[in-house]
Amino acid sequence: MAAIETLYTGFGSWNPLIWLAAFIIAIIIAWLIWSRGESDYKKGTEQTKPFISGNAEPEKSEVHVRGGNMYWGFTKALEGYYDKIVPLHSGILTDYILWFLGVVALVMVIVLGGGGL
After folding, report:
1. pLDDT tens by residue, 4-26
2. What is this structure's pTM?
3. Nearest-angstrom CA–CA distance, 28 and 39
4. pLDDT tens for residues 64-89?
């Protein structure tokens, strides 16, 4: 048995030497790109601030897009549904258990009562 041989899996091949060589070549290419970068970059100076055409950077809270804004169309389209459902959410676990038991009882009535049809 050879020390290093190619494994054929039916979905491709695996040769550790080829993958090791590819990994080393990728690291060398990444190092070459990194070494050509700006060497006078300094953290914590004006260089790190974004360029907004000479304007002052606004506060993060002014430009932050909240999750509610992402789903505005969805919640607006289902506004009638949410207006009825949201007040039912009290945040109290016993209320949710009561709702769960109520729904289970309703399903049981439908399933057991539907057998006579």
Report:
1. 777 777 767 777 888 899 999 99
2. 0.35
3. 19
4. 888 888 888 998 999 999 999 888 88
Cα distances (angstroms) measured from residue 66 to each of 6, 63, 85: 51, 9, 22
CA dist 33 to 26, 27, 48, 114, Å?
11, 10, 20, 71
Contact (Cβ atoms closer than 8 angstroms) between residue 14 and residue 7: yes
Q: How far is CA 60 from CA 43, 52, 54, 63, 66, in A?
A: 20, 14, 17, 5, 11
**Amino acid of residue 18:** I
- What element of type H or E holds 8? strand 7-8
Long-range contacts of 11-18 (CB under 8 A, 24+ apart): none
| Sign of the dihedral defined by the CA atoms of residues 26, 27, 30, 36, in that order | negative
